[in-house]
Amino acid sequence: MVKRILLFLLIFLISTIGYYFFSGTETANNSSLEQEPKSRDSIVHVTPIYVNFLLPASTKNQQVNHLKYSFSYSEKDEQAEWVAYKLFKNSVNNSIKRRNKFREDVKVTTGSATLNDYRNSGYDRGHLAPAKAMSFNDITMSESFFMSNMSPQKPSFNRGIWKKLEEKVRSWILISDSLYVVTGPALENPLGKIGENQVTVPRYYYKSIIRFNEDKLFGIGFLLKNEKSNNDVVTFSVSIDSIEKVTGLDFFHQLDNTIQNQLESNSNYQLFLQK
Question: Does one domain contain both 30 and 47?
Answer without folding.
Answer: no
